[in-house]
Every structure is written in structure tokens, then in C-alpha cells.
Specification:
Layout lengths: L2 H21 L6 H8 L3 H8 L2 H24 L6 H18 L1 H8 L9 H19 L7 H20 L9 H14 L11 H18 L12 H15 L1
Helix pairs in contact: 1-2, 2-3, 4-5, 4-6, 4-7, 5-6, 5-7, 5-8, 5-9, 7-8, 7-10, 8-9, 10-11
Amino acid sequence: MDEGRRAARRQVLQVAAGLLEEGGRDAVSTRAVAAAAGITAPALYRMFDDKDGLLAELAAYGFEIYLTEKREALALTPDDPLADLYRGWDLHVDFGLRHPAFYVLMYGTAQPGRRPPAADEAHALLVGLLRRAADAGRLRVPVEQATRVIHAATTGATLALIGEDPTRRDLTSSARLRDTVIASVTTGEPVSSGSDLASRALALDAALEAAVAAGPPAADAGIPLGATETALLREWLQRLAG
């Protein structure tokens, strides 16, 4: 796609985003978007195929906005993996409450196998935070499990708050759920020698994963084991953690 077509597509998405924020999903009809963008309906269909295609692109656009805001905010916080988890939760909820129509489109209409690349990046951001916690010996369950738990809890909390009357909304419910959920997957203090076997196993597993990801062969990554042996060791470590 050339630069001109990419810019035109982006402009239409910005117009559609404005309609979504003002009137919700129902306001984003192909006719309304085409009129607001100053283009014909056939031109809109050539860009996005149909309304479902437009909404899918709009959800991806929302994830881009979310990622930009979250990365900028997390860059300003101390380099503390647990503090970043708490901050990440609050940023997630805050985005949903400021952009409810976008959030419902992004998280309330998900379909298996149809997640946009930007959604994968948002998922990877959470995984990265949890891997840092594991590296520091602060995780009590495997990264994958912790990711599922926190993602489900933050999404559920945000959708529940969006559905409440804004004048009666109580954010302490989110804070209490945040504290309970994060405490259930993390340790209170960094593990020391001989303490908390599960956290130490997860920390070593995270280190092995990072070393393997850094280079193709495990030996070149500083691991004196073959790929099969490394995979087996990681399986044992995850069993210890479980």
C-alpha cells in the first residue's frame, strides 16, 4: 500500500473513531463514516471490504492508542516489576473508562483467531512485565498462568465498571480485585537462598527462556544443554513451581 492510500485509510479510521467515541458502535455505519470522511460508500468498501472489516480495523486502531499510552506511562515509573504490574492494571482500567466504546469493541467482541497484531502486542506487554517479575523471583505461578489470570481479571473488572452508572461507580472494587489477584500470583518479597522453591524454579525457568530466545542454539546462549535437555529442564522447573 502506497503512502497516500495509507494516509487516507488512517484519516477514515480517525473519523470513525470520533463517531465511535461520540455515539458508540451503532454510530459507526458505513454511510455515516463515508459522509463524515467526505468519501463515497464504494471508496469506503474498497478500503475495508465491509462494516465488519471497518470495525476490525477500528479495534486495531484502539489497541494502538492503548499501547502508546501504556508504554509512555510505564516508562515514567520506577524499574520495579511488581510496581509496574499494579500500575499496568490501573492504566488498563483507566483507558477503558475514558474510552468505553473503544474498549468494548476491543475486548467485548473478541473472536478466536481474529485478534489484531496490536492486541498481540498488548498481550506481549503483560507477558513481559510478568517475565521480569519471574526473573526477580517474585512470581509464584508460571508466567502463562499468571498472564491468563491477570488478563481475565482486568478485562472483567473494566467491563463491569463500564456497565455501571458513572455517577455511582466505585473504583475501590477494581483496586481490591487488583490487590487480591496480583497477590495471588506474586510473592511479597524477592526470594532468598533456600526459600520459596516455586518462585526460585520460576526465576530459573524465566532465565532459561530468555537465554534460549537470545540465540538459536542453547549452547551459544550460554546454556550447556541441548535443546531437548533444556526443554525437559524447563518442564521440571514448571512442575516444581506448580
